[in-house]
Amino acid sequence: MSYRAMSSSSAFLQKEIPPAAWIALILIVLFVILLNYGLWSAWKKRRSQNYDVILKASRAMRHPFENENQQLVELSRQVAKFKEPGSGKEDDSKPAGGDSSRSRS
User: Fold this and answer.
1) Cα pseudo-dihedral 22, 25, 29, 34, rounded to 10
2) How far apart are CA 19 and CA 99, in angstroms?
3) Per-residue pLDDT for the chain (105 aa), expressed as one digit of tens each?
């Protein structure tokens, strides 16, 4: 390569970049950085949600009736509130008139 060819290429590199080009270049760089950050955070959030789904599925496999058991415990607690303490009766569902299985004649 001749000296003349090198001097013309270096002259091209030494030209001053206009302010509008600097602004455009900075905006492009910011756009790329923000785009990468947005993609990375969305990927990280989705990955943590997938992990939560896996945890819920493994818990459901280990305790398949956990939700139903919790509902039964809550129902039992609410029924216990309705029972009167010290009533002496074991079964409150029997009618007061005696045994209903006898036939009337």
Assistant:
1) 90
2) 101
3) 555 555 555 666 678 889 999 999 999 999 999 999 999 888 887 776 677 777 888 888 888 888 899 999 999 999 998 886 765 555 555 555 555 555 554
Q: Reduced to 3 states, what is the DSSP secondary structure of residue 19?
A: helix
CA-CA distance, 28 to 45, in Å (whole number)? Answer: 26
**Reduced 3-state DSSP string for 29-86:** HHHHHHHHHHHHHHHHHHHHHHHHHHHHHHHHHHCCCHHHHHHHHHHHHHHHHHCCCC
CA angle 49, 54, 59 (to 5 degrees): 125
Tell me the CA end-to-end span of the chain in Å, nearest whole number.
Answer: 128
51: its two tokens: 């992990």
